[in-house]
Structure formats: structure tokens, C-alpha cells
Design a protein that fits this description.
Bound molecules: adenosine-5'-triphosphate, magnesium ion
Shape: elongated
Strand order of the largest sheet: 2-4-5-7-6
Number of domains: 2
Structural class: alpha+beta
Number of helices: 15
Number of strands: 7
Radius of gyration: 40 Å
Length: 443
């Protein structure tokens, strides 16, 4: 098959504009058919020239010589020109229709003994090799033309245009051999097309299987998500109902005040959980908005929103923002990411620490922005660290949340085409490092 690849690469493809084929996304099976058309033109010229030289020596009739010369000098160059220009359907149609007429003229002047009745079959086989079954209209047209011509030839005994028997000495053998060779070529092409389509189908099937598997996984995740979320939402509601009953029976105003404060906590928890679900769904559904990110104002908003945390005021915050290049990214997602990380630093502070502190370092280059958030809190044990970005994962009993925060952070960082890494040591520090590409430099 190497010789075939060599012929395809070195000769046939010279007549095809591969760039326009790939620009139009022509499927590979169609490319094989176009190559066949080129091969047919070249083989016809090669065989035809040999035939003509021998024919002229045997005093072939003027009509047949003219027929060949016209076919070689007009039809074949025109078909090759159309292929080069990318008009493949026109090229095929012209080859089929004028090719039939060419064969007809030759057959109608050579007599049945010449074997031209056999050679007419070439056109019928070629039809099936040239067109895919979707082009059945072309197939029907070509078959109609060829069978009409064959009927005319049969009824006139292949002598409609004369009875040139000068070439009968070798004509039958010539037609016999060319018919066999062309048939081999056609069946080879049909098999190759079939093989390609089979491969494509297997590929598609595999893709479908893996899509199916990932859908199954997603479905399972969704199941557990619904289960966990409804459970997490029911917990504060049950506490709220309990507190309502207590308040109803309580007379002491101070105790009622305390119970109401506890109710407020439950409501905040519920609200936080609902907010997290909204964040997740917004991240999945909404497209990226790119705007220059104003880190100062985003951080101010976050600290204000998180001021209800016990540690919010007492914690020492060192903020360094060095962004000579604006980060063009999605403000909503950036804010949600920072909010989750900062609230974690507030939540997981170390009571024994002399001075709970948090460092936020933001720096930018033309290509990306790096955000570093570090605290001196309780830290994360090494064995849990690889799971902290998992859905519903909590690594500490100091956590009162649902373990969704870092999952949301990771999902959003990925949506922004960024990366996030975490380093931590128990009772020492936790550090998150995020790198987000600047969208304008990649546009
Ligand atoms: P949620 O954020 O949904 O309210 P959560 O804070 O428990 O709940 P994540 O933010 O996903 O969930 O964090 C997962 C776990 O990682 C936490 O339970 C905590 O154990 C650990 N963790 C996260 N950030 C820190 C941090 N800054 N210091 C120490 N531990 C942390
Ligand atoms: Mg959290």
C-alpha cells in the first residue's frame, strides 16, 4: 500500500487544493472520492494515449481519434481545473455525463466484438464510487443516462456511428483489461470509504460512551448534591422551629432576646447556604463578563459584608496591591472567590495565636494576576489537604458551613482559566495561591 500512498501524496494531491478542502471541512470520505476523480483523469490520459498511438498505427477511424483528442484537450483539463477550484460536484457531474458520451461515441463505432459493451459498465461502477448514497439524485441521473446509452448501443448493435473494425485485433483485450483495472480501483475506493466510515462510527460510539459515563457521574453527583443540600437546609430550619416553640413558652425577656439571637444565627446559616447554591448555579450558567478589576473596592466591600464575623475586627490585615497591569476578568467571580477565602481565614483563626493575622498580596503582570491569601490560623492537616476543594468537604470541626466554599472557589477559578493551589501547616499557616490569566492579552 506504500506505493499507493506515494502516488496519492506525490501525484494525485498536486491536483487538489488541500487548504480549501480543510477550510471547507470536507469529510475524509469525500476527499477519497475527489482523489478518485483525479486518478481517473490521469489513468484515462495514460491509457488513452497508449491506445491512440497503437490505434493510429492500425488506422483507427477519424471519428474515434477526434473523440479522444477532444476528450483529452477539453474535458479532462476542465475537470481538473474545477477540482483545483474546489467545484467538486460540478467536476464529478461533467466527468460522468461527458465521460458517458465519450464512451458512447467510441462504442457506437467499434461493433459489439470490440468489447465496448463491457467497457460501458465502467461508467455504472464509477457512479457508485463517485457518489455517496446521500447524493442519490446524481446516482439516478448518471444511471439513467448510461442505461439509455446502453439501450441505444444494444439496439443498434454498437454500429450507430459506423463499423470500424480496424482495431478489433487488440480492442477486446484492451477493453477487458481496462474494465478489470478500473473495477479494482472503484472497489478499492468503495472499501476505503467504508473503512473510514466504520472508523468514524467507532470513534463516535466511543465518544458517546464516554459522554454517557460522564453524564452518569454527573447524575450521581447531582443526586448527592440534592440530598446533601436539602439536608443542610433542613438542619437550620429544624433548629428554627425548635426555637419558635421555646420562645412561645418563655416569659423572661432576656431569655427571649437570647433565643431570638439564636434564631438569627440559624437564618444567617440558611441564607449563606442558599447564597452558595446561587453562586454555583450562576457560575455554571452565566457567561464571563470581562472588566478591569478594581481590587481595592472589591476588598472593601467584602470586609464590610463579612464584618459580622467575630474575628473580622480583631484580625490584623496586611494588604498589598501592586497591579500596574489591570486584570481584565469577571468581577462577580473574582469577588466570590476572594469572599470565600477571606471568610475561611476569619472562620479558621487560631484562638491561641498571639495576633491572628491575614496577608493579602495581589500583583499583576501583562499576562496574569497572582493573588496570595495567607493566614496564621489553625491550618489544615496534610492528610485532608488534597480534598479541601471537593464538594461538601469539611476538614475541621470548627467548620459550621457545608463544605461548599472552596468547591465554588475552584469551579470559578477554572471558569476564569486560572489555577489555584493550597499550602498549609497545622497550627501555623494556610496559604492559597491563585493565578488568573489576563483576558485582554489573550484576545
Ligand atoms: P462553607 O465554606 O461551605 O461555609 P467550609 O468553610 O467548611 O464551609 P470550605 O470553605 O470548602 O468549607 O473549606 C473546606 C475545609 O477546608 C474547611 O472545612 C476547613 O477545614 C478547611 N479550610 C479552608 N480554609 C481554611 C483556612 N484558611 N484555614 C484552615 N482551614 C481551612
Ligand atoms: Mg468556607
Amino acid at each position: 500500500m506504500q506505493i499507493l500512498d506515494f502516488i496519492r501524496g506525490r501525484i494525485i494531491r498536486k491536483f487538489i487544493d488541500l487548504r480549501s478542502l480543510s477550510a471547507r471541512q470536507v469529510p475524509y470520505d469525500e476527499i477519497i472520492r475527489i482523489e478518485l476523480l483525479v486518478a481517473m483523469c490521469l489513468v484515462a490520459v495514460l491509457f488513452g494515449s497508449i491506445y491512440l498511438v497503437i490505434g493510429i498505427f492500425f488506422k483507427l477511424s477519424f471519428l474515434i481519434i477526434l473523440n479522444y483528442l477532444l476528450f483529452f484537450s477539453t474535458v479532462i483539463p476542465f475537470v481538473l481545473f474545477l477540482i483545483k477550484k474546489g467545484n467538486y460536484n460540478q467536476a464529478k457531474l461533467i466527468m460522468m455525463v461527458i465521460g458517458s458520451v465519450f464512451m458512447f461515441v467510441k462504442a457506437a463505432s467499434l461493433g459489439r466484438e470490440s468489447g465496448m459493451n463491457l467497457a460501458m459498465l465502467i461508467i455504472i461502477f464509477a457512479t457508485f464510487a463517485f457518489y455517496s448514497i446521500e447524493d442519490y439524485k446524481y446516482i439516478l441521473l448518471s444511471l439513467a443516462i448510461t442505461s439509455t446509452l446502453i439501450v441505444i448501443l444494444e439496439t443498434t448493435d454498437y454500429k450507430l456511428l459506423g463499423n470500424d473494425t480496424t482495431t478489433n485485433l487488440y480492442e477486446y483485450e484492451f477493453n477487458y483489461i481496462t474494465t478489470i483495472l478500473f473495477c479494482i480501483l472503484f472497489f478499492y475506493v468503495i472499501l476505503r470509504v467504508n473503512q473510514f466510515i466504520n472508523l468514524k462510527l467507532t470513534g463516535l460510539n466511543n465518544k458517546l460512551l464516554s459522554k454517557n459515563n460522564s453524564l452518569k457521574k454527573l447524575n450521581e453527583e447531582l443526586d448527592s448534591f440534592v440530598y446533601r443540600t436539602s439536608h443542610d437546609m433542613r438542619a437550620p430550619l429544624t433548629s428554627l422551629m425548635g426555637l419558635v416553640t421555646l420562645i412561645k413558652n418563655e416569659k423572661d425577656p432576656d431569655s427571649i432576646q437570647e433565643l431570638v439571637r439564636m434564631q438569627e444565627n440559624c437564618i444567617n446559616k440558611l441564607d449563606l447556604h442558599i447564597q452558595q447554591i446561587i453562586q454555583l448555579s450562576r457560575n455554571l450558567k452565566t457567561d464571563l463578563i470581562t472588566q478591569p478589576i478594581q481590587f481595592e473596592s472589591i476588598l472593601n466591600d467584602i470586609f464590610e459584608e463579612l464584618s459580622f464575623f467575630e474575628q473580622a475586627g480583631a484580625m490584623k490585615k496586611t494588604i498589598r496591591i501592586n497591579t500596574p497591569f489591570y486584570l481584565y476578568s469577571d468581577p462577580y467571580r473574582i469577588k466570590t472567590i476572594l469572599n470565600n477565602l477571606i471568610s475561611n481565614s476569619f472562620k479558621y483563626y487560631r484562638k491561641e495565636a498571639e495576633q491572628p493575622s491575614m496577608d493579602i498580596d495581589i500583583s499583576s503582570t501583562k499576562k496574569s494576576t497572582i493573588i496570595l491569601i495567607k493566614d496564621n490560623g489553625i491550618g489544615i492537616p496534610t492528610e485532608y489537604i488534597e480534598h479541601v476543594f471537593d464538594m461538601f468537604y469539611r476538614a475541621s470541626n470548627q467548620s459550621t458551613g457545608s463544605g461548599l466554599g472552596l468547591y465554588i472557589v475552584k469551579e470559578m477559578v477554572e471558569k476564569l482559566n486560572g489555577t489555584i493551589t493550597v499550602k498549609s501547616r497545622v497550627n501555623s499557616f494556610t496559604q492559597f495561591l491563585i493565578e488568573i490569566p489576563n483576558t485582554t492579552s489573550t484576545i
